[in-house]
Write a structure and sequence with these properties.
The protein has 575 residues and is α/β, with parallel strands linked by helices. The protein contains 17 helices and 24 strands. It folds into 2 domains: 2-315, no CATH class; 325-570, Rossmann fold (3-Layer(aba) Sandwich), CATH 3.40.50.1580. The longest helix has 31 residues, at 540-570.
Length: 575
């Protein structure tokens, strides 16, 4: 008679202001950062309306730093997952594969310690097994990681203070295992072996609304347990892993937000509004699952999120329309940035420069507010032109701002055979990268890579009325991109496109990098034709004339982009 068990420990820690978050990616990087939308998909929320954490993915530098701790605890392996001994009682342990995931919620770090399934005897003491402190070798590794995060160094001093840990258990009975009573399950959740009947009754009552079958999912601010009694049907068992991941993810999110809201670290305006959606608009964020929404509302109440959020709102004295849309608008060249800034200032008034990011490596971003359409425009520039800078800069800005939509606006080159007049706005449906090249004795060989833009933003752009514009807008054509400035319509790269990519009508130096950097976000490239690759005149007058044209056509691109975003803001879901 045994139980099949899986545990997820959620270990929380606050990163002090003295530790720069940019340290984790400074050379040599300990982690690679990416957005944590997979967690949001896991819990069943609409990621666009939800606070999205940052995921810290370990690099070889992290594993090298961890090696000494692993060797000290006799843990083999070079990368996750590792196998640790988990204690099931005095002098009795089982080897279990353990994975780790590290996520940042502002300055709140969560280390999720996730076990594979393992078997326990029917008399196992789950109130002890659920405690991370019961598993010494695993605890040592987790303490090292938490110290590394808090101190921002590969060689941290491991403190002896306790960790804030919440335990999530999934317990599946076999057909011969004794059924666990409500009192036993309540004891596992609360961590109190002698829990009284009033506590048990209250816990069962608070969790009643989100139950859906014979299994029992009980949660409170101490953790959760998901139990399948003997005789649970095969369909219910098949759904358990997905429901367990979702419930554990919700518990992590609620606990992390509580620490953010009641902590000493400042909440940014961007963080404030996405947290507001979670706390006040759970019907929208969890619109696809009634039981999921009910569980989130329970956890929100258990962690007192409405109360803490109300206090934060009073302190920040913020009053803004609900469902504000955030737009990250990126310009590659200074002339593009100046032209877009001029247009947005004329339309929306003077913008404010806001600081995005931590420490010395912050991004200054111009913020414009469109009150009529409840839209915040965040205007930013690349550090340099080219696809490499576009990938790095757009990715960093998008992770920090967490916009609803990302757009790149500016000017580009038109292929000579396309015969597109200067000022024509191009919205491509696909693009080619010619970044990969090989220099041979016979000339340059191009190794093109392609991608399609099938986003809703791109499809909506085709529906925008353009008849009243004094310029054309072209859809359904292709963009080519490479970090090469073309000043010869007869150059090798133009001839290659002329012969092998006849549907390409435009060329720029950032398009491919933009889409790679904005991967995972709703995004669209919108630029206007400035020239057909003719060389710039060497005289000052020639340079001024070219910049004047570039500025003028960029205004066309932002005019179209501005109308598109207003349509996005005005759209309503189909009823």
């Amino acid at each position: 008679m045994t139980y099949r068990v899986q545990i997820r420990w959620k270990v929380f820690s606050d990163i002090p202001q003295s530790t720069s978050l940019d340290f984790f990616e400074s050379a040599p990087p300990i982690f690679q950062r990416r957005t944590g939308k997979s967690l949001l998909r896991e819990i069943g929320s609409n990621a666009i309306d939800t606070f999205v954490p940052l995921v810290l993915e370990p690099t070889h530098v992290f594993y090298n730093a961890l090696l000494k701790v692993l060797q000290k605890n006799e843990i083999s392996g070079k990368k996750l997952p590792f196998v640790f001994p988990l204690s099931l009682g005095p002098d009795y342990s089982v080897p279990v594969k353990i994975n780790l995931a590290i996520r940042l919620y502002g300055r709140v770090a969560c280390v999720s310690v996730d076990s594979d399934f393992f078997d326990t005897p029917n008399d196992a003491d789950f109130t002890t097994i659920k405690q991370l402190e019961s598993h010494g070798k695993l605890l040592s590794v987790v303490q090292f990681i938490v110290a590394l995060l808090k101190q921002g160094t590969r060689h941290p001093e491991i403190a002896g203070d306790g960790l804030r840990t919440l335990s999530c258990l999934q317990i599946i009975s076999d057909d011969t295992s004794p059924q666990m009573s409500d009192e036993v399950l309540a004891a596992i959740v609360t961590g109190h072996p002698d829990v009284n009947s009033n506590v048990t009754s209250s816990l069962i009552a608070r969790n009643r609304d989100h139950q859906i079958d014979k299994t029992s999912l009980l949660a409170d601010k101490q953790g959760l347990v998901f139990y399948a009694p003997p005789g649970t049907s095969a369909p219910s068992l098949a759904k358990m892993p997905r429901r367990f991941r979702s419930a554990a993810g919700m518990l992590e999110l609620a606990a992390a937000l509580q620490r953010m809201l009641r902590g000493t670290n400042e909440i940014s305006l961007v963080e404030f509004h996405v947290i507001k959606r979670l706390v006040n608009d759970s019907e929208i964020v969890f619109s696809d699952s009634v039981s999921g929404r009910k569980l989130w509302e329970l956890l929100s109440s258990e962690f007192k999120l409405p109360l803490y959020f109300k206090k934060i709102a009073e302190n920040m004295q913020i009053s803004e329309p609900k469902n504000t849309i955030k737009i990250l608008c990126v310009a590659a060249a200074p002339v593009e940035l100046a032209s877009i800034k001029k247009f947005l200032t004329r339309e929306l008034g003077e913008g404010k420069i806001v600081k995005v990011g931590e420490g010395n490596n912050f991004d200054p971003v111009q913020c414009y507010v469109d009150e009529k359409f409840s839209t915040h425009w965040y205007l930013a520039s690349q550090d340099a032109q080219g696809n490499g800078s576009a990938t790095t800069d757009v990715g960093r800005l998008a992770r920090r701002i967490q916009p609803d939509h990302v757009i790149m606006v500016g000017m580009c080159m038109g292929l000579p055979e396309s015969e597109l007049a200067p000022g024509t706005v191009v919205v491509p449906d696909a693009l080619f990268s010619l970044e990969h090249q090989r220099a041979t004795v016979g000339g340059t060989e191009y190794r093109p890579r392609g991608m399609e833009d099938n986003s809703g933003l791109q499809r909506l752009a085709k529906l925008i009325p353009t008849d009243d514009f004094d310029f054309k807008v072209i859809f359904g054509k292709k963009l080519a991109s490479a970090s090469i400035k073309i000043e010869d319509p007869g150059s090798e790269i133009v001839n290659y496109l002329r012969n092998f990519a006849k549907d390409v009508v435009a060329f720029d130096m950032e398009g491919w990098g933009f889409y790679k950097g904005a991967e995972g976000f709703s995004c669209l490239w919108i630029k206007a034709i400035a020239d057909a690759g003719e060389p710039q005149l060497a005289s000052g007058e020639g340079r001024d004339e070219k910049q004047s044209i570039q500025s003028s056509v960029t205004i066309n691109a932002i005019r179209f982009a501005f109308r598109l975003i207003q349509k996005v803001a005005a759209m309503r879901p189909m009823e």
